[in-house]
Amino acid sequence: MKYYDKLIFELSKEGRQGFSLPQNSWNHHLEELPDMLKREKKAALPEVSELDVVRHYTNLSNMNFGVDTGFYPLGSCTMKYNPKINEEIAALPGFRNLHPLQPASTVQGVLQLYDELDRALSAITGMSKFTLNPFAGAHGELTGLMIMRQYHMQRGDWKRTKVIVPDSAHGTNPASAAVCGLEVVEVKSTPQGTIDVDDLRPLLDDTIAGIMMTNPNTLGLFETRILEIAEMVHACGGLLYYDGANMNPLLGVVRPGDMGFDILHLNLHKTFSTPHGGGGPGAGPVGVAAHLAEYLPNPKVIRQADGTYTVTGNETAAGRISGFMGNFGVLMRAYAYILRLGRQNVRMAGPLATLNANYIKEELKDCYKLPIDTCCKHEFVFDGLADQSTGITTLDVAKRLLDYGFHAPTIYFPLLFHQAIMIEPTETESKETLDGFISIMRHIAQEAIEHPEELRTAPHLTPVRRLDETTAAKQPVLCYADLARS
Amino acid sequence: MKTIEGLYYSESHEWVKTEGDMAIIGITDYAQHAMGDIVYVDMPEVDDEVNAEEEFGAVESVKAASDLISPVSGTVVEVNEALEDESGLLNQDPYENWIIKVQMSQPDELDKLMNATDYAAFCENQ
Amino acid sequence: MSFAYFPHTDEDIRQMLDRIGVKTLDDLYADVPAEVRYTKEFELPDSMSEIELRQKFEELDRKNKQLTVFCGAGAYDHYAPAVIPALTARSEYLTAYTPYQAEISQGTLRYIFEYQSMITELTGMDCTNASMYDGPTAAAEAMLMAMAATKKKTRVLLADTLLPQVKEVVKTYAKYHGVEIGYIAHKDGNTDVEALKQELATGDVAGALIPSLNRFGIIEDLSGMADALHAVKALLMVYADPSALAVIKTPGAWNADIACGDAQTLGLPLQFGGPYVGYLACRKDLVRKLPGRIVGATHDVDGKRAFVLTLQAREQHIRREKANSNICSNQSLMALYITIYLSLMGPEGMRQVNELAYGGAHYLHDELIATGLFEDVFDRPFLKEFVVKSKIPADKLQQALLDGGFLAALETEEGYVSFCVTEKRTREEIDRMLSIIKRLKP
Q1: Looking at residue C441, what is its pLDDT?
Q2: Record: contact C313-B67, CB cut-off 8 A
Q3: Which of A111, A484, B52, C327 has its CA 20 to 30 A from that of A300?
Q4: Could you report the per-residue pLDDT of A223-276, keeping only the tens digit for each?
């Protein structure tokens, strides 16, 4: 990685051009528009050559770390390998140039893919029917909660306006609930990090719309009392929502539908290998049990008796949550991945992810504090260094890892532990990669004792070093015009 | 940690100074320490109603946000506009730099608050 | 067992299990109740090799029909220069995570800063976030922002001239969030400021969302809208096509408080509706209500200029149920498409794109009217999209065009048919389409 300090605006020179367009031979011109509807001053966009653009964005990319660069032990993010064939497939020109409002008869291939992916995800999760329209995990959560509310409202059960969320949940769970107009009721975790069933029981009454859970939870622990929880929630008339953020270790082993979940979302950019793209686009399909299928949002794809596909909508659906039918390019990649896995390899994905996580945990638990020492699933959490006398924090460890060519783990989440270091290796990393990471983590633990200053001031070898985030938040400079002023 | 005699204190770490029926409200030294560098203060507008034990705004650091809970009920008569540009004043001197002034509707709510000694003891146990 | 994406040899697995102290992979799931273990065969196809996978998708591809696109309605067939796929395919961008570790994410952070700079410039607003899912969801988030910014109000108004999918998505979010939706009628294809004032008179309005380029293709005159809304402390939200904003009056110039829309028009492929990218921009004093990621400039400990995700205390991972939005991602890679697109186009390229679309659309419009088979509906200025009344039944017209390889004449809810022309459409294509139309009878 190499520091490069330009912004594209700083390469701009008036009159330079990076585009090519056909000659204009039309007789009508923009000048005809009334002045009051015209833009007054031309937009201050960069004026650069094509090569300027290519070099600039190539240079910028050299300051980035990706899965193709190195290992991401990033808890809760499932940074697995993004297969290259999926990119070629998503770029197939036939799919790339389709307008979303083309009549169904002209997009049968698209609709068949949508339907087959729905069926594949249903088979993997034990749900009955999916919508592939949600754009991301959080969008899937919101959609799922809308379905939950719509189900109760359609039954005339207006009182159910509360949703139970564990205190260890991802922040999106309570935020999605609030956007959906639901009141959040927190349920406590036991010291082992799983839901406290005794705390849950008194919360269940006829105002509860449902409960949101991840399983395994954010500590990577399987909720062993899940069947009991499902029975309790169903008995009170509520529904169970499964946050699929932690689905990866269950892939091929356990189906959320069989645990009693009624609604779930999946993060295709986690469990199903689509690239994160520096923060998106992802996809967050939502699957439901059969009795909730009518509430899935519009539009929907239906396979007709004659084997053709059509796009429809229905009145009792939760509504419309997307402009068209989801991040179709992402759906294509995920389906390609599922077909590569097939019924044989799907069985191995979860177990190998779990094997990798437990292996790292065992190799490091003598130098990092392991608050819950049991068999984890896809991830586990350390609470800082075992030797806390050095004053070296989790942040220091994370930043030092960057110097050694690894991405940092997820840090300071979950909030249950003050110095949380959350590690998730995924199944696509080899033993050699894990051994390399383990030896560096041990080395850093040693450095904490011998050269603590090296850690406190880390990273040293990255394009930039620790940033002044306080100034950034106090006096926000959010665009080039602000920067030019400041 | 600094406290000032003669002020009222809440369990959510706000202080109140009274001038007749006017309550001047800020956050305590303990609160500003716990937050670290305060980068933004979200304040109500003049004439907004506030209720005791309900939020009236928030203070933000880079990686945290904490609600401001009103110790008393009443109407906001003034907000400290200096904090809009210089939120760090709360770190520099949290007792000098108040956040809002409230015309109290139920001054007896002050009775539920702590004095400096009790508040200091309360913080010890946090 | 051997599979290209799983690197484990049998020997690796044995050694790792030994280290963990269990005998089999199955033992790692000993805590999972037997009743929920899935032991049956999965109803999935056999694992496919790359060769078989290609065949499978090529076969699906053959079931789609490539059409020449003469319609828009929220998805536009603009040209994307070859530089865009070449650069966005770089794995340093494609396979990167969200730039939380700023020290090794300056590439992503810089292009997002550039994206924010370009969007604020095009919209004439003070600030924007790092992007949203798509235009309709950006509009829904604008509604949530207006509710949060105005406190205690209960209604949001939508212009009837917004795209149907925008109205539908906002209505869905509103239903569950507990916001009442009202509609503002149009007059001759332009949102009626008098109708707006009537709605405002009933009180409780947090804001109104009005398009600057509407579903009839008309460039709306928003005179008086901001004043009417601001008089009752409500916000003007403008839904705008950012490509068009290079030449038409900006939301900022209309004195809008919030601007939002879909930026698919800036170099993104049609891809059957996604991934696209929404944008959401606002006045400076609303920035703390703006949802989603925002990148800001700062410096590192050595004084080097650097960029970082900032104002994070607004977001769901800190505020949880008190956040104004649940959004946890942005369409980052799509923002990169846009940034590269706008860098290549510059102000002159953006002017020419609009000139070509304007010229082509007006040529098609005039020729359609000249056939005697179509009549104008509105007498208003349009840019690249327009509606006309057709004397040929819409379904018959559409089918004839489809048979000729054209997607055009989409029907609006009023029964008008709409056409759209971008810089990609040639005179030859338009004339070929016209020749099909001229053979039809009313």
Answers
A1: 83
A2: no
A3: C327
A4: 999 999 999 999 999 999 999 999 999 999 999 999 999 999 999 999 999 999
| A474:B39 CB<8 A | yes
- Identify the contact set of chain B against chain C, taking CB-CB distances under 8 A: 39-40, 42, 60-65, 67
In a shared domain, residues A243 and A175: yes
Q: pLDDT tens-digit profile of A267-303?
A: 999 999 999 999 999 999 999 999 999 999 999 999 9
Domains in chain A, number: 3
Domain ranges of chain C: 10-49, 68-78+346-438, 83-339
Lowest mean pLDDT among A339-343, B69-73, C1-5: C1-5
Give how far C318 is from chain B: nearest CA, Å. 6
DSSP result, A265-287: EE-TTTTT----TTT------EE
| Segments forming the whole domain that contains residue A107 | 85-340
Same domain, A153 and A57: no
Q: Which of residues 214-253 of C touch A (CB under 8 A)?
A: 219, 221, 223, 245-250, 253
* Pair (A301, A450) in one structural domain: no
CA distance B38 to chain A (A): 8
CB C132 within 8 A of CB C277: yes
Give the domain C83-339 fold.
Answer: Aspartate Aminotransferase; domain 2 (3.40.640)
Which residues, 6 or more positions from A161, have their beta carbon under 8 angstroms from its beta carbon? A181, A182, A183, A207, A209
Domain segments of chain B as ranges: 8-107+114-124
**CA–CA min distance C226, chain A (Å):** 15
Question: Does CATH number 2.40.50.100 belong to domain B8-107+114-124?
Answer: yes
Q: Tell me, what's the ipTM?
A: 0.97
Interface partners of A (3+ CB pairs, < 8 Å)?
Answer: B, C
Rounded Cα distance, C347 and C364, in Å = 26
Contacts of A402 (CB under 8 A, 6+ apart): A408, A458, A459, A461, A462, C101, C103, C104
- Looking at the structure, tell me whether residues A390 and A253 fall in a common domain: no
CATH code of residue A242: 3.40.640.10
Shortest CB distance from B42 goes to which of C288, C312, C318? C288
CB contact under 8 A, C318 and B63: yes
Provide DSSP, chain B: ----TT-EE-TTSEEEEEETTEEEEEE-HHHHHHH-S--EEE---TT-EE-TTSEEEEEE-SS-EEEEE-SS-EEEEEE-THHHH-TTHHHH-TTTS--EEEEES-GGGGGGSB-HHHHHHHHHT-
**CB-based contact, B65 to chain A, within 8 Å:** no
Q: Please indicate, yes or no, whether residues A129 and A256 belong to a single structural domain of this protein.
A: yes
| Residues A323, A358 within the same domain | no
Test mutation, B32, B35, B37, B59, chain A, max A CBs within 10 A: B37
pLDDT band at C187 (very low <50, low <70, confident <90, very high): very high
User: Does the beta-carbon distance from B62 to C313 stay under 8 Å?
Assistant: yes
Q: Cα(B46)–Cα(A106) distance, rounded to whole angstroms? A: 60
If you measure CA to CA, which chain C residue comes closest to A474? C311
Nearest to C312 among B42, B63, B67 (CB): B63
CATH homologous superfamily for the domain C68-78+346-438: Aspartate Aminotransferase, domain 1 (3.90.1150.10)
Q: What is the token pair recorded at A68? A: 């193709």
Name the minimum distance, in Å, from the CA of B5 to any CA of chain C.
33
Kindly report, residue by residue over C13-39, the tens digit of the pLDDT. 999 999 999 999 999 999 999 999 999
For C137-162, b/e burial (b = at least 16 CB within 10 A) is bbbbbbbbbbbbbbeebebbbbbbbb
